[in-house]
Write the structure tokens for this entry.
Amino acid sequence: MWSVAKKQPPIRSLIGEGTVVHGEVRYEEGLRIDGEVHGDVVAVGEARNLLVISEKARVVGKVKGGHVIINGTVIGPVECDELLELQPKARIEGDVRYGTIEMHQGAAIDGEVRTIKPSEERPALKLAASSRL
């Protein structure tokens, strides 16, 4: 049976290339960063949200959101409640906490990586070589 993909929230805000923001940035629904943020970037509200940190972007501070896509640089901790996507040029200097993670070849994390989900919610690890009939 095919699973139905959930519709992404719309990106309603943009921090453009060449823009530098000093201070905390709070967003609802969707935010794309192509510039620089010196401060925390935090999702607010109960709705699903999307944060895109593009290849040219740089965030110096905490990043917190539901669905986070990173292809730029983050210097600070990253907390992602749902899906964290690390694209090939992603660079993170800080601890990472995630619900689900997708990491492409080339992405780099310099910090501790841990799931948010309690151990009873995580699927058991089963090695193909260890399965017996």
Observations:
- Residues 13-110 form one domain.
